[in-house]
Amino acid sequence: MVLTGPKQLEMQTFDLPNIGADDGLVEVERVGVCGSDPGIYSGSITRGIRPYPIILGHEIVGRIVQLGEEAKKRLDIVEGDRVVLEYAFGCGACRSCLSGNYALCDKNYTYGSMISCKEPPHLFGGYSEYVYIHPRAMVHKIGDSISPDVGVLICAVLGNGIRWLRQVGGVSMGDTVVILGPGLQGLAGVCVAKESGADPIVIIGLSRDKSRLEMAKRFGADFVINSETENPVEVVSQITHGKMANVVMDVTGNPSGAELALSLAGKRATLVLPGIYKGKKASLNLDEAVFREIRMLGVFSHDFRAVEPAIKMVRRSQYPFKELITHRFPLKDAEQALRLVAGEEGEIPLKVVLDPKM
Amino acid sequence: MVLTGPKQLEMQTFDLPNIGADDGLVEVERVGVCGSDPGIYSGSITRGIRPYPIILGHEIVGRIVQLGEEAKKRLDIVEGDRVVLEYAFGCGACRSCLSGNYALCDKNYTYGSMISCKEPPHLFGGYSEYVYIHPRAMVHKIGDSISPDVGVLICAVLGNGIRWLRQVGGVSMGDTVVILGPGLQGLAGVCVAKESGADPIVIIGLSRDKSRLEMAKRFGADFVINSETENPVEVVSQITHGKMANVVMDVTGNPSGAELALSLAGKRATLVLPGIYKGKKASLNLDEAVFREIRMLGVFSHDFRAVEPAIKMVRRSQYPFKELITHRFPLKDAEQALRLVAGEEGEIPLKVVLDPKM
Amino acid sequence: MVLTGPKQLEMQTFDLPNIGADDGLVEVERVGVCGSDPGIYSGSITRGIRPYPIILGHEIVGRIVQLGEEAKKRLDIVEGDRVVLEYAFGCGACRSCLSGNYALCDKNYTYGSMISCKEPPHLFGGYSEYVYIHPRAMVHKIGDSISPDVGVLICAVLGNGIRWLRQVGGVSMGDTVVILGPGLQGLAGVCVAKESGADPIVIIGLSRDKSRLEMAKRFGADFVINSETENPVEVVSQITHGKMANVVMDVTGNPSGAELALSLAGKRATLVLPGIYKGKKASLNLDEAVFREIRMLGVFSHDFRAVEPAIKMVRRSQYPFKELITHRFPLKDAEQALRLVAGEEGEIPLKVVLDPKM
Amino acid sequence: MVLTGPKQLEMQTFDLPNIGADDGLVEVERVGVCGSDPGIYSGSITRGIRPYPIILGHEIVGRIVQLGEEAKKRLDIVEGDRVVLEYAFGCGACRSCLSGNYALCDKNYTYGSMISCKEPPHLFGGYSEYVYIHPRAMVHKIGDSISPDVGVLICAVLGNGIRWLRQVGGVSMGDTVVILGPGLQGLAGVCVAKESGADPIVIIGLSRDKSRLEMAKRFGADFVINSETENPVEVVSQITHGKMANVVMDVTGNPSGAELALSLAGKRATLVLPGIYKGKKASLNLDEAVFREIRMLGVFSHDFRAVEPAIKMVRRSQYPFKELITHRFPLKDAEQALRLVAGEEGEIPLKVVLDPKM
Fold first, then answer.
1. Which backbone phi and psi does D222 adopt, to 5 degrees?
2. Alpha-carbon gap: D205 to the closest alpha carbon of chain A (Å)
3. What integer pLDDT is reported at residue A341 of this predicted model?
4. Total H helices, total E strands in chain C
């Protein structure tokens, strides 16, 4: 499915690329519709101009069909292996890449969003039967014990959660962790906090989130707060005997979430801010951050240091990950899937996936 | 000078306290009028209800007139020594104190603002001839080679700057540091950045700040930007070849400073936010913090780990610190000094001090 | 039981201290015989001259019998509460205390080792019916749901483990953690690594440690290595596909453990070194630390930031903590208990406790 | 000059390589004889088997004679620019490279030591008229204001010092820094400590180091200690009033230096250990590291984050860097230069350089 311009999606066919020693080809088993995909689809410009035509899709699970000899050695992967691909792979030469932060690569080398499919090897997106494995692509073997559906969650859901809350946010044992927004990233945050020894874990949602808040308990939440019927500041104060939270993450996608998050943070607490607020501004009383010496940390995406523990975590499999996949569509219904994720279909899904074999 | 209520300042006389083994008495040589003093004077409530009557003044330089035996041993100080007192001393028992962050003490034990002078030992403020040395007071010998005027700058000006920019903000060698606001904290920030090996150091001010921006160069600034005639984002981009700043500190006291600071910060940069914005809210596009993974750090006050290097820095004395003291008043003119610092007298001073001997 | 000099232990009776507003008295329910107690008993001088006579014992669980009004407010504890006391409490005034590291207090204010019982309030050790609660004592309510036996493990076993491996050592999710020595601190390390999301967790012991290595599996170990029959470097290399460990902790008490630990550490790994090697020197090839940029961290004791999560961890109670208590003695048999812990009785115990009510 | 085997050095001539879009060629103006070069020359195996024949030399200063179009854009460099090359450049694909630590690259891609000159493009070492610029080579423009002699010091002397002491070691303002060994790395450490606001800075040497200790003062040392006539522990204790050092770096190359360094470190101090001890083992009483919670950090080489501030530091040029170059030889006398650096010629040089134009 090729996005030829804003809201213009069409099925196209490309020649399979020639594979050399350093690159490869993966047959897509499943691709997730990321919460950021509807924005790309509708043409919003957040990290730069979109190089149409592009193939959407960066939450990619598939099987290796072809892989160069060098790549096999480097990746310890062979044909037939089930793998996931990270969103970003980086140019390898800019300051961000050289510093180990290829997700912030100056060239935005990423699947499904910032590389045109006009020229060969074309296949830089997951809404497709095949995806090209760039020599610098971050490919991880996940094994057959992890299903394609659950595999979709590894990078951009769990990998994000691990990087944001634990590796950057620094959740420690016994920390009070509060998460605003019981979407996929919120639920991922809950189980990452649990795996990090946080205690208690609090999740905040709205009345319409009732079933998700219930599910949050199965992912490790100790308390759920309905912010429409309860005052989160009062409840968190009561739970913590006035100390408030050590780490707060706002994944509501709404700037008012960041504002509430600041109020829930205790002395020397950390606010984890993965956005995205689509340019809407947050109105923050920064004096609160001063008098309590709060750290507010913008965080973006995942890398291999987060994806590797995510794979291990899924393999140990103590959480009901597969229940997070709520909708499956064939590739041809990608537009419907995008509308669903955009919230334009009434119901609010958790993870929506596309299956090229359907 | 006792503040008996908002904007009610009167001279009162108290009995000198009885000094035991653990406490002491200092004769005030000079006390600074802090930028936060006018707010306390006018009754603004930022960190809690003011316990009137209170004696204002926490930038205290003086000579020890009496000191208990235990205190002498603990502090390595004797009668006659010239000393400075830190703003905060902490209760020693709350979580902040036990964690080494006594400036964030739950009880707000501080000079000149949060302890009533109603009961003995009364003397908890610097607008006075004598100040009581609490057993937990953070007292530092500075020696006679540092003048009382310059001594006023050690804790709340240079100590703040060292803690904010270097110890929390983490300025490293070769970092591009941008400071917004060429007031005392801005100038202190410039020389702390210089002592930290930052290069280049940029300071941003307004047209009316012309002489201060010139002075900033003598404190180590490599570039000065007049934000009324130049576009700071463009200038910083040009200076840094598009990489923007590594560390940005906003000491404008105006939330628009924080907003501009965010725009000046490069990838994985640090924003140092010492406020105080007096409750005015900053309107921040947090997506910028996400896409560039920016850290925004609320910072508050100083402690002994910052004051000790501040004393050493002043002793090496390569900067024109004494020119920062622009006005001297006797105690009885404290009200005029407060109006001057509040910006109600037309001109904008740098450091205003009171001299009880005048 | 009072230690009047090296290896001179006798039962003495003291008057109960007078309790004021800030201090208190606890009736001892159980006290652990720490691995360092035999050394104190036999007069070894590690952290300074012992101020005989002293009452041994710093792993203290008991019920509050008397508590001053100020202390009640500060600690949120009342008479009748079951509590644990931390080893150290600090003078509150030295640089270590002011920095939040009271376990490194210059004055070594600690229970059971460095305060003489000659003068009132006498009761500074746990091998006793009652212990004095100093105004700065770090007292934690644990509740009746935690038994006195398990309570003994909270501070100096689990609190140590949390501080050493997680808070200082920085174990992260998916890290390969290797622990040398399956004693109490080794087993505590295993479950702390588990609670921190480490994967895999490896423990190394000797042939005689067979049952402990089995127990380690129940605490979360994924692999056990008998270093007498297997080559630890080879096994860890195989488990990690040559990457070796991210974090290695040596709790063998033998310098050869530190030497092996260095060989097991991968690039940019962390070595956690809680010693104590009793002055025996480790012979380290530091070039290994250079070429792999290894961090070697000396760590000592616990503080409230570690004890609070330890209490939470015990309350969730997923580990067979109570099986760690292998021996119980009445106070009068303290000498036998000390010999047992010193390894002079043939068998090697895990935790040995004294019960003043026996 | 090609090393065809241990101690077998001969002049050979190679064809200049063909330059494409991504690579280039530099004409060598000066190359430093690194302290590690004699070891490579004599065939010691530290980081792996040497792939003879190799061209020695990794402290390279020269002018660009040819540079591909892509490389020009990426590096912002053109023909004629004076540049320095970092020692390591990394494979770009291993875990170390992907984490931003290319100096620890699994493949040891480095100039002058680990790449054979048997095959084209041959020119991977600085003891040569020309050096090949690999597509991943870390090339920095230094400008004509920095002389070739001083340029030699930028990467492996000052870049090392900045990374070791400041970026990893974390020297802060007002820290007491002690450096053992007044060789090039010791002197570099002194001025890096100075630029970092350390105070006081102490350097320790032997009687034969008299002139270097004098020079250390010009680089910023406040105290010099002759460890043959003074007791360093006593002197540092006196200077610091018993607190001992915050940061200690051992660059003696002798394990006894590391042992002394540990004794000089205060509570929660940092030991910076760049080695190399050539496999000789240090005998450390690790209990000291435990009771004072000392961090011992292995550090290795430099990267662009250290080299960029090194260039800025040299440009500001407040230190007598050029006096550090004590000997100059033509390429043909490389063997003599190596013997000199190895200490086999009686006198002990500071920096020895080779000039291909001599």
1. -90, -30
2. 36
3. 92
4. 12, 17
With the C-alpha atoms ordered B155, B159, B160, B161, is the resulting torsion angle positive or negative? positive
In this predicted structure, the answer to whether residue A44 has a pLDDT above a threshold of 80 is no
Query: How sure is the predictor about C35, in pLDDT bands with cuts at 50, 70 and 90?
Result: confident
Query: What is the reported pLDDT for A63?
Result: 98
d(CA A299, CA D152): 39
Q: Can you state the angle between helices A210-218 and A184-195, rounded to 10 degrees?
A: 20
Choose among A93, A99, A303: nearest Cβ to D305. Answer: A99
Alpha-carbon span A46 to A117, nearest angstrom: 20
Chain B positions with Cβ closer than 8 Å to A:
46-47, 95-96, 99, 101, 104, 168, 243, 255, 258, 267-268, 273-279, 281-300
Model pLDDT for residues D184-232, shown as the tens digit of each residue? 999 999 999 999 999 999 999 999 999 999 999 999 999 999 999 999 9
Residue pair D25/D16 in contact (Cβ under 8 Å)? The answer is yes
Ramachandran angles phi, psi of A298, nearest 5°: -70, 130
User: Which residues are CB-neighbours of A173 under 8 A, at least 6 positions away?
Assistant: A196, A197, A198, A199, C162, C166, C167, C192, C195, C196, C309, C312, C313
Q: Please choose, from the candidates D250, D249, D223, the residue with its C-alpha nearest in 3D space to the C-alpha of residue D237.
A: D223
Q: Contact B199/D76, CB-based, under 8 Å?
A: no
Among residues C312, C151, C177, C300, the alpha carbon closest in space to that of A175 is found at C312
| Cβ within 8 Å, pair C166-A172 | yes
Q: Report DSSP state, residue A164.
A: I
Q: What are the pLDDT digits (tens) for B286-300?
A: 999 999 999 999 999
Q: What share of chain D is helix, strand, coil (3-state, %, to 5)?
A: 30, 25, 45
* CA-based nearest residue in chain B for residue A254: B286
C341 alpha-carbon distance from chain centroid = 14
What ipTM describes this predicted complex? 0.95
Q: What does the block give as tokens for D275?
A: 């080695």
Sign for the CA dihedral angle at B59, B62, B64, B66 comes to negative
Q: What are phi and psi of B24, to 5 degrees?
A: -170, -175
Categorize the per-residue pLDDT at A32 as very low, low, confident or very high, splitting at 50, 70 and 90.
Answer: very high
Separation of alpha carbons A1 and A54, rounded Å: 9
The reply to whether residue A297 touches residue B296, judged by beta carbons under 8 angstroms, is yes
Note whether B100 contacts C95, CB cutoff 8 Å: no
What are residue A267's DSSP bridge partners?
none
Place of tokens 């043409």: A43
Query: Over the stretch B302-326, which tens digit does the pLDDT of each residue have?
Result: 999 999 999 999 999 789 999 999 9
Q: What does the DSSP 8-state code read for residue B130?
A: E
* A19-31 tens-digit pLDDT: 999 999 999 999 9
Average pLDDT of B34-56? 84
Closest CA to C92 of A151, B134, A22: B134
B99 vs C305: CB contact, 8 Å cut-off?
yes
- Measured CA to CA, the distance from residue D286 to residue D267 in angstroms comes to 14
Q: How far apart are CA C3 and CA B72, in angstroms?
A: 34
Contacts for D208 with CB less than 8 Å, ≥ 6 apart:
D348
D196–B196 C-beta distance less than 8 A: yes
Which residues of C are less than 8 Å from D274 in CB distance? 290
- C220 vs chain D: nearest CA distance in angstroms? 26
- Type and span of the H or E element at A39: helix A37-42
The alpha carbon of residue D3 and the mean position of all alpha carbons in its chain are separated, in whole angstroms, by 21
What's the pLDDT at D46?
Answer: 64
What is the per-residue pLDDT for B1?
75
Residue B174 with chain D: CB contacts under 8 Å: 162, 308-310, 312-313
Return mean pLDDT, chain B.
94
Residue A241: list chain C partners with CB under 8 A. 76
Pick B166's closest partner by Cβ from D172, D313, D316.
D172
Question: To the nearest whole angstrom, how far is the Cα of A318 from the nearest Cα of chain D?
Answer: 28
